[in-house]
């Protein structure tokens, strides 16, 4: 690699060490496609964050609608890309459009109302796809702050109101609410400031119920993994589960239920995927829990701890347990380093599959959209 390109890749790797996408946003954009066009395909392991980002964007590039109306600029140079990679050069979010001063100007702004409705509708659809990829579903997606803000904006546009009257989308990372200033009581004493709503924790769920839910999800997922693997001839499978919520003990029980020897005579089968190697991810508030499982007959082809350590090294994770067949690791949430379990989970699933590809244990990506179906919850219609 030429010295200048080596320098460019070092800057880009540092830039992407705290970002999922090039501009630091919640979804891919034009800048990701531009940078992808000038980034070498075979990125050295010396630049793990560039490799992670490039693999992710290359997989999404087959679906242009995820990037809105953006198109890649193939003529961009590595020098331009490295300059753009500096965090200081990242574009600031655009300000909300100013109110139209004159009736004539207002009419012109509202003249393309149909196009605005379509644009906001597309934005809602892309955001929901991203949230679904992060493990959210159904009611949780609809109640997401950014989705609700966009829906309100779409409703305002459909009613004929100008786009500027609609509320701006909520930022992906909201600042915690400030505590109210203490007020003077009638007796001159300071009243206790109300506790910020964001800091109130929901009541703890009964541990027995949580365990039951985790086992049930594992048993059901095991049958689905067995079916998907049999159809695709897979030896290993990477996926995520919801119920453990980052708890390593619950994740262990969940995977144990996946591997439970299934009885084909049962009306509702459970487990059945014990012969399939797997890496399972569970995102919680405080950490991302990861469990790698390698069956005894496949331990000559893959070292469980090596697989796990490869992923933990990307985000300074911790190895909690290690054996020939099962390894458990965690990656702690760190807002200062932009480490959030839901945000990093998808990229780590891709990295887990890439590690298998290098070992010849996972099918090569031939560009067919069907290859992407092994990465997420879309494999499982029942979820």
Our Rg estimate from Cα atoms comes to 24 Å
Number of helices: 12
User: Stretches where pLDDT falls below 50 for ≥5 residues?
Assistant: 69-111, 162-175, 179-186, 367-383
Based on the coordinates given, report the CATH architecture of the largest domain: Roll
Q: Look at the helices and sheets and give the structural class.
A: alpha+beta
User: What is the residue-mean pLDDT, rounded to a whole number?
Assistant: 75
Biggest sheet, in brief?
A: 5 strands, mixed
CATH C-level class of the largest domain: Alpha Beta
Strand order, largest beta sheet:
1-2-3-5-4
- Helix and strand element order: HHHHHHHHHEHEEHEEH
**Overall shape:** globular
Number of DSSP strand runs: 5
Helix content: 40-55%
Please give the alpha-carbon distance between the first and last residues: 45 Å
Task: Give an overview of the whole structure.
- Helix content is 40%, strand content 8%.
- Residues 69-111, 162-175, 179-186 and 367-383 have low confidence and may be disordered.
- The protein has 12 helices and 5 strands.
- Helix 6 packs antiparallel against helix 8 and helix 9 (207-232) crosses helix 10 (248-258).
- Strand 1 (236-240), helix 10 and strand 2 (277-283) form a beta-alpha-beta unit.
- The chain is globular and about 60 Å long.
- The chain has helices at 3-16, 30-38, 48-60, 78-85, 103-110, 113-133, 139-142, 145-158, 207-232, 248-258, 304-312, 341-358; strands at residues 236-240, 277-283, 287-293, 318-322, 326-332.
- It has 3 domains: 3-89, no CATH class; 111-165, no CATH class; 207-379, Diaminopimelate Epimerase, Chain A, domain 1 (Roll).
- The protein is α+β, with helices and mostly antiparallel strands and 383 residues long.
- The longest helix is centred in the middle third of the chain and has 26 residues, at 207-232.
């Amino acid at each position: 690699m030429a010295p200048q390109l080596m320098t460019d890749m070092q800057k880009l790797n540092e830039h992407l060490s705290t970002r999922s996408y090039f501009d630091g946003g919640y979804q891919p954009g034009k800048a990701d496609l531009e940078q992808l066009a000038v980034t070498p395909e075979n990125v050295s392991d010396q630049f793990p964050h560039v490799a992670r980002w490039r693999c992710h964007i290359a997989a999404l590039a087959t679906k242009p609608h995820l990037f809105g109306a953006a198109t890649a600029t193939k003529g961009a140079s590595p020098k331009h890309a490295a300059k753009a990679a500096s965090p200081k050069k990242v574009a600031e979010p655009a300000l909300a459009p100013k109110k139209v001063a004159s009736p004539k100007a207002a009419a012109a702004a509202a003249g393309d109302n149909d196009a605005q409705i379509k644009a906001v509708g597309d934005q809602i659809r892309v955001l929901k796809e991203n949230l679904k990829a992060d493990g959210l579903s159904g009611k949780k997606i609809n109640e997401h702050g950014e989705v609700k803000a966009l829906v309100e904006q779409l409703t305002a546009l459909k009613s004929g109101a100008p786009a500027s009257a609609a509320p701006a989308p909520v930022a992906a990372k909201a600042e915690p609410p400030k505590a109210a200033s203490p007020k003077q009581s009638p007796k001159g004493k300071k009243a206790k400031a109300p506790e910020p709503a964001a800091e109130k924790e929901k009541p703890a769920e009964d541990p027995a119920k949580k365990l039951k839910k985790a086992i049930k999800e594992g048993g059901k997922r095991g049958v689905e993994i067995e079916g998907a693997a049999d159809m695709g001839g897979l030896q290993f499978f990477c996926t995520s589960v919801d119920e453990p919520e980052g708890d390593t003990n619950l994740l262990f029980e969940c995977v144990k239920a996946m591997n439970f020897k299934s009885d084909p005579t049962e009306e509702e089968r459970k487990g059945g995927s014990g012969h399939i190697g797997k890496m399972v991810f569970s995102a919680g508030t405080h950490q991302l829990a990861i469990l790698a499982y390698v069956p005894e007959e496949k331990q000559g082809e893959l070292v469980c701890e090596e697989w796990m350590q490869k992923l933990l090294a990307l985000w300074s994770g911790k190895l909690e347990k290690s054996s020939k067949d099962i390894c458990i690791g965690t990656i702690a949430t760190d807002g200062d380093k932009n480490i959030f379990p839901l945000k990093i989970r998808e990229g780590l699933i891709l990295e887990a599959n890439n590690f298998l590809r290098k070992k010849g244990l996972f099918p090569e990506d031939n560009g067919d959209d069907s290859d992407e179906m092994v990465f997420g919850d879309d494999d499982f219609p029942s979820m």
